[in-house]
Amino acid sequence: MKADLPSQSYTEDYYRLHQRRYLLNDAMSQRIIVDVLSSLQPGPGESILDVGCGTGVISLESYKRGALVTGIDYSDAAVKMARELALTVVGRNEIEYRCMGIQDIPTLSRRFDKISCADFIEHISRELFESFLKQVRQVMKPGGRMIIYTPNGIIPDPTLGQKLIRLAGLLPLFRHDDIAAIEKTTLAWRWYPLGKSESVSDQEFEYLHVDVKPAAYLMGALKKYGFRVIRIKITRGSSRLQKLPYPFNILWGGHICVTAQKI
């Protein structure tokens, strides 16, 4: 397990990669949206806090469904790119984006019906994650729900198989679904032309995953800090490696999506 990283570790290149995928409507981006929103179910007038919002994809999709959204991230680059994405997609930004750390969550004036943590908790240590659980309870309404979407979490080291696959040279720079989306889409290149910073892959940012948390630990931590797990969903991503038959597909992993309710 590595130490938590400073906010400067998260560059615009990192966020532009994910922003580009959303604008290209690629399979990976759509899989995340479907998985998270099917559990989050944002509705008109609901107050939603998107923690570790990154480029703001979940914030934006929740806003498009009528929710009142606040997106927070401790990276200045994330907040900048999230605001940019909202302007690009809907022509305005009515989402409240704030650059703030976990320790500042109780200062938020609004109380929230639902909280989204999509691809966030693997970027922080267990110590900071448990601090997050304590802080976030203070801004949740009674009976409020939190959605945690994070890589695999089924086995203690789900990234081991990924590393072996990469060492064997079996992982291309682009997935086939990326290439198909690029061939079908030309408008996106006007926003983000292919260049050195645009041709990077997820694997170049793997060091940002501080701690991929096993499912057993995640369930225990939620219970310890006053949450009741009401739904667990195991999902598989868009990679062709994840479509291999069991048990080979577990080498690549997937995501676990947990719905927890404040007790």
Structure description:
With 263 residues, the chain is α/β, with parallel strands linked by helices. It has a single domain (7-262), classed as Rossmann fold (3-Layer(aba) Sandwich). It has 9 helices and 7 strands. It has helices at residues 12-24, 27-40, 57-64, 76-90, 126-137, 159-167, 176-184, 188-191, 215-224, and strands at 47-51, 68-73, 96-99, 112-118, 140-151, 227-235, 255-262. Strands 3-2-1-4-5-7-6 form a 7-stranded mixed β-sheet, sandwiched between helices. Helix 1 packs parallel to helix 4 (76-90). The chain is globular and about 40 Å long. Residues 171-200 have low confidence and may be disordered.
Structural class: alpha/beta
Give a count of the beta strands, DSSP E runs of length 2 or more.
7
Count of DSSP-assigned helices: 9
Which percent range fits the helix content? 25-40%
According to CATH, what is the class?
Alpha Beta
Which overall shape is indicated by the principal axes computed on the Cα atoms? globular
Give a quick precis of the structure.
The chain is α/β, with parallel strands linked by helices and 263 residues long. It has 9 helices and 7 strands; from the N terminus they run ααβαβαββαβααααββ. The protein has a single domain, classed as Vaccinia Virus protein VP39 (Rossmann fold), CATH 3.40.50.150.
How do the helices and strands line up, and which of them pair or pack?
Layout: H1 12-24, H2 27-40, E1 47-51, H3 57-64, E2 68-73, H4 76-90, E3 96-99, E4 112-118, H5 126-137, E5 140-151, H6 159-167, H7 176-184, H8 188-191, H9 215-224, E6 227-235, E7 255-262
Parallel strand pairs: 1-2, 1-4, 2-3, 4-5
Antiparallel strand pairs: 5-7, 6-7
